[in-house]
Amino acid sequence: METVEGYLRRKEEELKLLNGFLAEPVKLRQPRSVDEVIEQKFHLAAALKAEHHLHDWALTETAWTQSGRPKSGPFEFSYDYQRADLEVRGPSFYAFEELANATTIYSASGMAAISALLMALRPTFSEADIMTLPNAYGETTELIEGHAKHLRRVEMAEPFADIRGRDGSRPRILSFDSSTSSKIFEELLKCARPLIDLIVFDTTCFSGGSGRICRVLNWARSGSIPVVLLRSHTKLDSLGIEYGRLGSTVFPNSPGFSERQKTFMQQLLTNTQDAIRVFGGAAVPAHFPPFVGNRVHRSLTSGRIAALLKNGRHMKSHFLKSVPGFAAELDFAHGLYVTLASTRLDSEKAAREIAAEMCSDLKKTGLPLRHAGSFGFDFGAAEWAQDRTRNRYVVRLAAADLPTAMWDAVVGAVAAWWSASECRTSLAPGRRRAQSPMPSRADEPSQ
Length: 447
Hints:
The chain is α/β, with parallel strands linked by helices. The protein has helices at residues 4-20, 34-55, 110-124, 138-147, 182-189, 211-222, 259-278, 295-322, 348-363, 404-427, and strands at residues 71-72, 75-78, 87-89, 103-107, 128-132, 151-155, 172-176, 198-202, 227-232, 247-251, 327-329, 337-340, 369-371, 380-387, 392-398.
């Protein structure tokens, strides 16, 4: 169990790392509370961004000065007009030696990365089946169904017999992410020699050094299946401050592949680069965190992820005991958040309002819980979400990097608030007893 004192010492080291990358470091004050930690970290991030822009004022989108290569910490960039030919030299965001020499294409966000890859599949495969897991990341599903008409989405179900045999000649792609349950994630990795042609693995919710990333890579290698890694770096790779929108597509080296597979992967890599260019999705050099890629950053990131996962396990255990009837999913593969259900959550608007109301009420008591649509912060975050497997809306609660006892207090307060709110609703006249189904994609309000 991490004490408040231990937590503050660890956070002081994070502040020192950020401050050390300023040309003119500021005088830090030793943080005495969670609020002071958050405030100082975001101030330092803003100072780093401002300093970058002031230093590289002449390096515009047109690269008109030819005054040398722009840099951001360990990253070095070269590009011509509009960054359409952006080249990046720098460390890998992954902590695996086998990916150190992989080919990486950076993009303006994680969604820009997957959008470019899916569009790049069109000239590579004229048509293909893309197989998704139950409750896969919602925006990826939306992208496939709405804009990747050359791909036919097939949602798999246990025991995953549909990847052990073929029902036609169409190429098959497996879209793999951590938004599904741990049980499904583990069961899929037990499938020996799946008959698929490509694995598209979104690693966003896993640490860059996660053993589960390594397991998926080994699973793909054992079946001689090409794999492409997608990632949003605004989440877990920038010490919880969302330094800037940045995504990547990584093509691991494939010495054991057949000549046909090597040719296919080279075509896909080239087509992805073209898609990034023509869709205007190139990365912005200023969004590369200058403080990554060194031993201290990796150590501090490992500490943050360990705290998040531990607090996630505490949250799961508490909700199983205190609000079992309202648990939607408590065991996601990534372990970073859980979801709660209620008959009151009959629309996106209702789910959003309840998340905001809960955060507002708990914030008044001094607890660090915010209404925010992301995860991996130094504060807890709640927001609406969709449970597509059960056709309903839910509220997502993301674990925070906080001292154990403090996070336990937040979780206890959430459980108490949720139970009390349900009681008030059940006693209200004219209470709605049945949850309305979610609208179809055509009728659904945009996010």
